[in-house]
Amino acid sequence: MATAAAQKPSAPKQLPPPNADFFQFADTLGEEERAIVKKVRAYMETKVAPIINKHWVEDSFPFELLPSYKELNIAGIGISGYGCPGGSPLLVALVALEIARTDVSFCTFHGVHTGLAMESIYIAGTEEQKQKWLPPMARMEKVGCFALTEPLVGSGAGAGLLTTAKRDGDTWILNGQKRWIGNAPWCDISIVWARDVADNQVKGFIVENKTTPGFSVEKIENKIALKVVQNGQITMTDCRVSDANRLQGGKGTFRDPALVLRGTRHGVGWEITGAQMGAYENALKYAQERLQFGRRIASFQLIQELLAKMLGNIVACQSMLARAVQLETQGKLTDAQAAIVKAFCTSKARETVAWAREVLGGNGIVVDYNVARFFADTEAIYSYEGTYQMQNLIVGKAITGFSAFV
């Protein structure tokens, strides 16, 4: 008769460590930029990972991390000059991927401040505005948000913004509401996009949240996803903004926010791929340790098939994203290419995180095991910065020559 000791399986002496960078995309960076990515990964694993589940459950933002985040020197990454750290488009992408690999909400906070708020000023601001705002934002003395979506206007923002801007001498009067604005409940400045009642064009404004009369923010409660990032509903009632705070370096049309969104849209692809990587790596680690029927479940055929399919999705997304970065670097990335990246990667992510949850069984719905957080957060990313369906219509117009928009 076998003894209890003989029945208990012994773990292999050495198991492959979970690593979702199967095709070694990080190695395509130069040594200096690769060191930055490693620094970000170490920060996320040692500082953010130990506390993020608690904040996710409590629907709170880890403000205690802001001083150490500042020391990473990645606010404004990809922007050259103005106190920003610069860096290649691939570095910007892989930094976002590494942040999201631990937590998507923290990556959203980073992306809203750096990729949306700071890029809006960089792309559509005057030289004077860049000199005034970008250095303190890079130093994290000022944190920003990007206010485009409205309670009644999401996908139709290009033609139907209800927030209005009316010029009155050297000031503008803003009236309207914005919704789902990440960082809004606590940040310092908002990049508000409003329709000029005089020419019906969309214009951008830098609004100082805490000192502008008529500007208020209500935190959106009871979310089931992206619970760490704080979303707000902004209300502007006869909110006066100086003409000096109107973004005057762009075209003064919807083309300005559209240019910002082109870059961040495929950036969302990197973010959601980071989420896939985090879900996969946590599921793999769990499978290597979990005992069932006297064996570690990583040795089961069905579990290995799920893990292999997850990794295939991740590599497919990474490959598409790598090419998108090449096109961006060459100045050739189109709206349709950015759109298909966002649509494809978020669609594949839904599959990946669902399979990761499946690997964990019942533990897959418990936040303690991390996968549940990725599972829930992916649903939000599937819709934000342009829904899956709208992205496909952008692609459809490009490939057919016909617009299917209403």
Automatic annotation (TrEMBL):
Database matches in PROSITE patterns: ACYL_COA_DH_2
Record key words, sorted: FAD, Flavoprotein, Oxidoreductase
Species of the source: Bradyrhizobium iriomotense
Name of protein: Glutaryl-CoA dehydrogenase
Keyword Oxidoreductase listed: yes
Statement: the UniProt record of this protein carries the keyword Cell membrane: no
InterPro entries named among the record's database cross-references: ACX4-like (IPR045008), Acyl-CoA_DH_CS (IPR006089), Acyl-CoA_Oxase/DH_mid-dom (IPR006091), Acyl-CoA_Oxase/DH_mid-dom_sf (IPR046373), AcylCo_DH-like_C (IPR036250), AcylCo_DH/oxidase_C (IPR009075), AcylCoA_DH/ox_N (IPR013786), AcylCoA_DH/ox_N_sf (IPR037069)
Highest rank taxon of the organism: Bacteria
Pfam families referenced in this protein's UniProt entry, alphabetically: Acyl-CoA_dh_1, Acyl-CoA_dh_M, Acyl-CoA_dh_N
UniProt domain Acyl-CoA oxidase/dehydrogenase middle: residue ranges: 145-239
Upper taxonomic lineage: Bacteria, Pseudomonadati, Pseudomonadota, Alphaproteobacteria, Hyphomicrobiales
Cofactors, names only: FAD
Domain named Acyl-CoA dehydrogenase/oxidase C-terminal: residues: 261-399
Domain Acyl-CoA dehydrogenase/oxidase N-terminal: 31-141
Family per similarity comment: Belongs to the acyl-CoA dehydrogenase family.
